[in-house]
Design goal:
- This protein has 9 helices and 8 strands.
- The protein has an 8-stranded mixed β-sheet, sandwiched between helices.
- β7, α7 and β8 form a beta-alpha-beta unit.
- α2 crosses α3.
């Protein structure tokens, strides 16, 4: 696996390439907060022969703007457009990236990145796959709170206190309002071009969730949120926690790998 730093007009990113010619490209939407660079999800994806494009969310690290779910979702869509139109800039040379990167087939998200990922899915008509690890679907008090136990206000304060330079946030009110939207406020009636897969993966030992609520209502949570022919399921790892590394197991891999590579 090799990595390249990408610098677009308004955002920075990292492109991770497998050792063989990539079959497709997946976007990666990280949680809140997150660290840049390679992680277990990226290594796992590259091991399956796909490229991974990891854009730094608006207002984080070297990307312009302010961080909130809507700005993150808009950037993910912009990134897919840049990849599909072969318009990436190599940060080291300042010139166009040599060669082409396969079109974006899907997205992998972790934790809070799920909110932006689902908004991206609704806007990107060519989506085929969304894999959501430790998926925070939102903080709406309806729908059983989407099974989320975490206090978002406390998380915002934590990020402001510990990452004042690498995370430049939109107002607390904006982040809370966008994160607490309910399915009735954000569902759409657009018809997707093709059937696609949305797979959630959660660890039974993840204290962020009431896993039983998330599991029991997963299908309705997704189908109320996303219009179109969605195939959806939630995979549980009885020993997993909140990190992707703790959730990924041989059993999880055996289920998701055929979906990722399109077998």
């Amino acid at each position: 696996m090799k990595s390249l730093k990408i610098k677009q007009a308004s955002y920075s990113a990292e492109l991770f390439l497998p050792d063989t010619e990539p079959s497709s490209t997946y976007l990666y939407a990280a949680g809140f907060p997150y660290s840049i660079g390679k992680n277990s999800a990226i290594s796992w994806l590259c091991s399956m022969g796909v490229a991974v494009f990891f854009p730094q969310a608006p207002g984080t690290y070297d990307s312009d703007g302010k961080f909130c779910p809507s700005s993150h979702a808009e950037l993910l869509l912009r990134a897919a457009t840049d990849i599909n139109s072969n318009a990436l800039t190599n940060a080291r040379t300042g010139g166009a990236l040599e060669g082409s990167v396969p079109a974006v087939r899907g997205i992998v998200a972790h934790s809070y990145g799920t909110i932006a990922a689902l908004d991206f899915v609704k806007a990107y008509e060519s989506v085929e796959v969304a894999i959501l690890f430790a998926p925070i679907l939102g903080y709406c008090k309806d729908h059983y709170g989407y099974g989320v136990r975490e206090d978002l206000g406390e998380q915002i304060s934590y990020v402001q206190r510990t990452r004042p330079h690498t995370f430049r946030l939109a107002s607390r009110q904006v982040i809370l309002e966008q994160s607490m939207r309910c399915a009735r406020d954000i569902s759409d009636s657009r018809t997707f071009r093709n059937a696609f897969d949305i797979v959630g993966v959660v660890g039974d030992k993840d204290s962020t969730f009431d896993v039983e609520i998330l599991s029991r209502h997963w299908e309705s949570f997704i189908t109320e949120r996303i219009a179109g022919p969605v195939r959806t399921s939630l995979i549980r790892n009885e020993n997993g926690g909140h990190s992707i590394g703790s959730i990924l197991s041989a059993d999880v891999d055996s289920v998701i790998k055929p979906i990722i590579i399109g077998a």
